[in-house]
Structures are given as C-alpha cells and as structure tokens.
Design a protein that fits this description.
The chain is 23% helix and 27% strand. It has a 4-stranded antiparallel β-sheet.
Length: 114
C-alpha cells in the first residue's frame, strides 16, 4: 500500500512569516510520535509566491485521519484550556490568511545512491 502525502498550502503575508515559523518550531515533536507518521517539512517560499508548503507523509490515509481527529484537533483547540490569559483567553490570530490541503499517493520514490 503506497504512502500518502498531504501538502497544506498556507498563504502567509510577509509580516506573518516569522510568526508562522516560530509557531511551527514551538510545536516540534507534536506530529512525530503519531502512528503512521513518516515525514514532515515546512517549506518557505523563495520567490514569486507568499505560500508556504507544509509537507507530511503518512503510511495510510487512515493514519492521517486519526492524527487529524486526535492530536492535531486538540492542538488547534488549545487542548481545551484557556489561552495565555487563563480561562477564556483569546487564541492567537492565525498567521496564514488562507489554507488549502492537497492529497497525493506516492507512486514512485528514490533516494541517493550509496
């Protein structure tokens, strides 16, 4: 069964780039322990676009969906706890102004020759 790749396309205004990157850095390890997780990369645009790509690879669609419904959902809801201001604190404003999820199956792959 081929791995699945999910690419979240995030439109990020220039003034929010640092915020986005810091948020991803602070969540290091949040996905790595998930069952079926294979790879993660945050790709910063170099020129011609304001879209970041969040690349993840999973053993199966089911593994991705389990992560989306469990750990990812909890993380984005703040785990049911109040924000920095305690109970009922406001969630930080999203760094991205838009988000699109692309899905792919891996049909061929290669690595460097030894």
């Amino acid at each position: 069964m081929p791995s699945v790749v999910k690419i979240n396309v995030l439109t990020v205004p220039a003034e929010q780039r640092e915020v986005l990157e810091k948020r991803f850095a602070s969540r290091a390890g949040a996905v790595e322990g998930s069952d079926g997780f294979e790879w993660f990369e945050l790709l910063r645009p170099v020129e011609g676009t304001d879209q970041y790509l969040v690349y993840t690879r999973w053993r199966s669609e089911e593994d991705f969906q389990a992560w989306m419904e469990g750990p990812m959902k909890a993380a984005h809801q703040g785990g049911g706890q109040g924000g920095p201001g305690g109970e009922g604190g406001e969630r930080p404003k999203p760094a991205a102004s838009a988000s699109t999820l692309w899905s792919f199956e891996v049909v061929q792959q290669a690595g460097p020759k030894n």
